[in-house]
Amino acid sequence: MAAGSAIQAPRDSPRSASTTALTATALAVLAALALLHASWLYAPCDDAYIFLVYVKNLLAGHGLTFNGARVEGFTSVSWVALLTLLGTTGLPLPPVAESMSAVFGVACLLATYWLGRRVGLGPGYAVLPVGLLAASGDFAFYMGVGVETSLFTALVTLCTGLAVGEEAATRAAERRDPRRGMLFPLALAALVLTRPDGALVAGTLLVLLWLHNGSLMLSVRSGLVVCAALLPVSVARWIYFGDVLPNTYYAKAGAGLGNVHHGLRYVGALIPRYGLLLAALVALAARGWWTRSATDRSPAAIATLGTVPVVWLAYVVWIGGDNLVGGRSLVPVLPLVMVSGARLASFLAFRRVAWAAAAVAIPLTLGFVFDADVTRHRDRWRDHFETRRAAGLYLRDHFAPDTLVAVETAGVIPFYSELPTLDMLGLNDAHIAKEGRRDRSLRFAHQAGDGDYVLAREPDVILFGATPRAKPGRTISAREVWSSPQFRSDYVPTEWEGIGTAFVRRDRHARTPEEILGGRTNVLMLVIDTLRADHLGAWGYEADTSPRLDELASRGVRFENFYANAPWTRSSLASVLTGLYPRTTGIYEESFDALAPELSTLAERLQERGYLTLGVTSNPNINAWFGFDQGFDDYRDSDVIWKWMADSTTGTPRERGTAELDQAHVTTDRSLALLDQHLGSGVERPFYLQVLYVDPHLPYQAPPEVEASLPEGPHRAYDAEIRFADAEIGRLLESMRAHGWLRDTLVIATSDHGEGLDDHPGLPFGERHGDWLFDSVLHVPLILAHPSLEPRVVSHPASQIDLVPTVMDLLGWSVAPAEVAGRSLASLARSGSASDELPVHVISETDWREAEKASVRSPSHRYVRSDDALRFQRDGRHEGRRLSKRRREFLTLAPTELYRVRGGEAELLGEGDDEFDRVRESLRRELAEWERQTPARPPIRRSSDDVDKLGDGRIVPSVDAADPEGPGPELEEQLRALGYLGSDE
């Protein structure tokens, strides 16, 4: 049987029901695989957000504008119209655009099968190009990014198939339904409205229709219908934008010999993936033209199938290729290329469909799916999107609505910033597109620019690069702006943490760059020492201990599963204020470990951004003597230290009740006095106030009337301390509100650790805090309250190391992940939803006195490893110290423990439990991995000689005390390499 007749037979023979069902199943499976492939390669596209800027502004009543500029930079009229129509439903625009890309991608697969049947392929061979297309990484990549590519490709495929049908109908002199005859020109009109260069495909098909049929009138008639359909759009474009052609035409008009070398390189890069198919394309086009006759429609169809892609690729070479990744410029004709490959297979294989399909499909599929170039660009696009989105949100939240921003990536940043935007590439700027200078050495669509014009517009912020960076790229506008003396004198570089470098115009704003970019929100950090979460009403406690804190929780965000990273004050507060684990802060022991000056505190981060930083502590554990005044403009110590801080040579230790620490009312008075001193004169800087209330720490000294107001019980004295501190916190807040200091203030209420209240009877050495890693000493409150935060309860587990990145994020800054061990909880505070990056496990540790323990807590279990007990039971000693009998008993407990936690209850599991070995081993490995990845630094220790005894019996830090020694150059270099000390630049 001849090849030509074998191809035509399927069109003349009726298909059986089983063949139809099998074909439909195959197409459905391939469509599903294509969607999976697209989801695997998904990456947000900046160009998609250019469309969305226009759609968003149109839906908001601002017209088809680019954030204030009336210019047509969206290229595709039909795509904008479709997204606007769907946007009226209120659905979020980015997923709508991406979903439409996927829908038209599936439509393109079906059109490819239809085209294959149209040019004479049997059902088996017609499925083959669909499979190849579904496997193509280039097609799948653009099937879900939200641009018009999949719609345009589907229309090219549809129009080609319709053209083949028109040719066949004319040759057979068929009588046609007039309405059916309108489908072809209307499809051509939709093609041109989707992409202006669709006119090239439309013109090619009309010329081929004339050449194959020998009738000029049919092509002219179809062309007139296309023009009539386009006329209203052209008139509207002229009236609204003042031009018949879109602005992108002028910005991208780079055709000519000067760009051919770019185009040849572009097409050459596609050869490794599509070389075999492109060769088939040329061969089939030549064969179709060579064997074209007046009676056989197959050669004419082949000629059309091959000619359109050849003309399109010549156009791609002429304009210099595309500026986007992958083979985007090939995708519109890729279905035609795939069908051409199937035709080649059918010619070579005759009836051996399966062998031919396998021979062509298997190597091509493997090459497509595992194309490293596409997956590499996918990862890069994902990273770029997150940075651009962060930059856009930062601009929106920290700059005035009239701020003009000059950018080189004109999609994501303008969409999220919602600010007036100057597109330095000219895609959305008429002056640059039409009047800008050209640099033919640059890539297609990025060859226009005008640095003088950009500076004459006086943008308030200039962002260079695909993501904000400190130096410009090769584009004209960026190069000319960078080299201008005006830019050097008028703009200052400002680092946006986690985003990059922005250049801010200094003469428009009198404030410093930090004040321009930093939020005006004040921050009040309240730390209530030794406060258990489960003794507060908001956490379900029955006694009325905390009406003010409960009220704060009711109008704020309450984190019900928040844990300390250490069970004693100085170590846990170091984690609160640095975002680092105790082992990295170097604060291990209770005695004299100090906070290293190389580490950045929350106060330092805010001070660098223009904040007035004030601090008050009533617990000497975080006195300036231990380095906790870092970053504070004014820090008020407790003027008394714990008696154990004094060496026996200093004097007789105080008895309990002598020169006790400041109680809550004194702490409130000192805090209000500090605020009045610094804010009473009307300081315009935002402030950060950090206050530590030592109550309800021992000794319990609440006023008798407060204790009498609470019901009898074993913990009445402790509860009374909470009630007293709660009342003083209420007084502080009310006084700040009365003075206007609480307006636009983020209030944070938390604790350093809890307190053991005989929750575990029989322990050989008390409970309290410091020695143990029970929930009684680790489960602490966290409340975030601000007018912008809706009240909610967050159940996701978190810990103290998360506070620094959370506060910075809520204020509009980000902290590089390498600088802290914690992660921001801002998404939980704002919406209650957790990102995939937030861990669900909490690590705590203690090296307090003789206790050396570490624990990992999952939502359902807590694993504790006691290194002190492990060492003691192994060699009978504890760092060479002589231990009392009670201490020895303390060290004979089980070296590892696993608890099942449910609500506030914890059940100790033994080896007989089914889950014991499995869960214990999993958490043990996690703890070991954490130790491996978390840097540990040796402590910086003060000396007990650095204290003075005053005449009234108080023991205070000596004014002559020497500063603690640093970590040494070797450790400092290691910590700096890990990112904890910043960089030298």
Task: Provide a compact summary of the structure.
With 985 residues, the protein is α/β, with parallel strands linked by helices. The protein is 49% helix and 11% strand.
How are the SSEs ordered, and which strands pair?
Blueprint (H helix, E strand, L loop, with lengths): L2 H10 L4 H25 L4 H14 L17 H11 L5 H26 L4 H13 L1 H5 L7 H23 L6 H17 L3 H16 L2 H26 L5 H6 L4 H34 L6 H23 L14 H16 L3 H17 L2 H27 L6 E3 L4 H6 L3 E3 L6 H6 L1 E2 L9 E2 L1 H6 L4 E2 L13 H8 L1 H6 E6 L3 E6 L7 H5 L4 E7 L18 H8 L2 E3 L2 E2 L5 H10 L3 H4 L7 E2 L7 H7 L3 E6 L16 E3 L27 H16 L7 E7 L10 H5 L7 H24 L5 E6 L24 H4 E2 L1 E4 L6 E3 L3 E2 L3 H8 L15 H6 L10 E5 L6 E5 L3 E6 H9 L9 H6 L5 E7 L2 E5 L6 H18 L6 E2 L5 E3 L5 E3 L11 H9 L8
Parallel strand pairs: 1-2, 1-5, 8-14, 8-15, 9-18, 10-19, 12-13, 12-14
Antiparallel strand pairs: 3-4, 5-7, 6-7, 9-17, 10-16, 11-25, 15-17, 20-21, 21-22, 22-23, 23-24, 26-27
Helix pairs in contact: 2-5, 2-6, 3-4, 5-6, 5-8, 5-15, 6-15, 6-16, 8-9, 8-10, 8-14, 9-10, 9-11, 10-11, 10-14, 13-14, 13-15, 14-15, 15-16, 28-30
The overall average pLDDT, rounded, is 79
The secondary structure category is alpha/beta
- Strand % is 5-15%
Strand order of the largest sheet: 13-12-14-8-15-17-9-18
Outline the low-pLDDT stretches.
1-15, 292-297, 350-356, 509-519, 647-659, 949-955, 959-985
| Count of discrete alpha- or pi-helical segments spanning 4 or more residues | 37
Would you count the extended β strands for me? 27
Gap between N and C termini: 77 Å
Percent helix range:
40-55%
Profile the largest sheet. 8 strands, mixed
Radius of gyration: 36 Å
3D shape: elongated
